[in-house]
């Protein structure tokens, strides 16, 4: 099966709506230090396409009710450099458009903008992750990912084409990218984001080691914070008071911009008519041919 029900390790803090996950590629070249998927996907840095992907998707998509929600992707970015050559994600979108499915694209890549016209013509929304504005910090934190300016430009192009867009400011790591929260929220909202999803760094052994190596000066304070944290669903969380303070900063900045806000696995429930992943934005998109809702 390549279409699987979304299951965030049965986390008691997950508030995501019911949806399916689709990963056109296995592995990711972005090399993000905080990546959680690298803890359970072998050879994660080696991006490779799923075998027989489009044939299998065409078969499996026929079994889903029209307007079922599919998220691309929850583990491996759907727009790696390989996408320019293979076009697998675009092929997936075309198949799902033909089936009247609702689609959410989640990516760090500016390549998503190349499919702006396709996304605008189907029931879709897109979420672009932007963790900082500073190129130097981005290169240390996400060495293989497109720079922040490229992601903001992609967000702007999607919004200009009529695609409902949100931004993921995720994760926030104290001492590394928390200093410009307000400026970052302002930038993504100016680019067209109508919703912000945010969360704090939820560490696993591999990601802790990578962060400590790349940010040795910041690590000492961060290690002290984690000593006061707690283990939830296999991830080490920052202390609750710090998490709440950081999320309150993001929310206050988002409120100022007139966008909606929700946190991800932080122990809070999304406001009414808001979904934590931003898929409530689908309500503003044209209905599928079946007339079914999201």
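Q: What amino acid sequence fits the structure above?
A:
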């Amino acid at each position: 099966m390549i279409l699987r029900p979304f299951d965030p390790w049965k986390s008691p803090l997950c508030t995501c709506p019911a949806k399916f996950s689709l990963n056109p590629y296995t592995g990711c070249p972005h090399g993000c230090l905080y990546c959680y998927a690298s803890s359970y996907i072998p050879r994660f840095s080696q991006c490779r396409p799923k075998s027989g992907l489009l044939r299998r998707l065409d078969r499996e998509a026929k079994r889903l009710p029209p307007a079922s929600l599919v998220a691309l992707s929850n583990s491996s970015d759907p727009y790696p450099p390989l996408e320019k050559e293979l076009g697998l994600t675009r092929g997936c979108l075309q198949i799902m458009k033909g089936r009247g499915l609702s689609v959410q694209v989640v990516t760090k890549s500016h390549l998503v903008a190349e499919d702006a016209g396709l996304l605008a013509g189907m029931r879709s929304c897109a979420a672009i992750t932007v963790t900082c504005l500073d190129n130097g910090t981005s290169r240390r934190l996400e060495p293989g990912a497109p720079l922040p300016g490229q992601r903001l430009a992609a967000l702007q192009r999607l919004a200009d084409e009529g695609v409902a867009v949100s931004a993921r400011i995720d994760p926030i790591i104290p001492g590394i990218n928390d200093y410009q929260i307000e400026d970052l929220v302002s930038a993504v909202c100016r680019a067209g984001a109508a919703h912000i999803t945010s969360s704090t760094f939820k560490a696993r052994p591999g990601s802790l080691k990578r962060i400590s190596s790349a940010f040795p000066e910041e690590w000492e304070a961060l290690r002290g914070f984690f000593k006061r944290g707690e283990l939830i669903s296999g991830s080490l969380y920052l202390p609750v008071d710090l998490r709440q303070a950081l999320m309150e900063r993001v929310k206050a900045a988002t409120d100022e911009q007139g966008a909606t806000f929700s946190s991800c696995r932080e122990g809070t429930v999304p406001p009414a008519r808001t979904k934590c992943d931003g898929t409530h934005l689908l309500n503003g998109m044209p209905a599928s041919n079946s007339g079914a809702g999201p």
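Q: And what stands out in the fold?
A: The longest strand covers residues 164-172.
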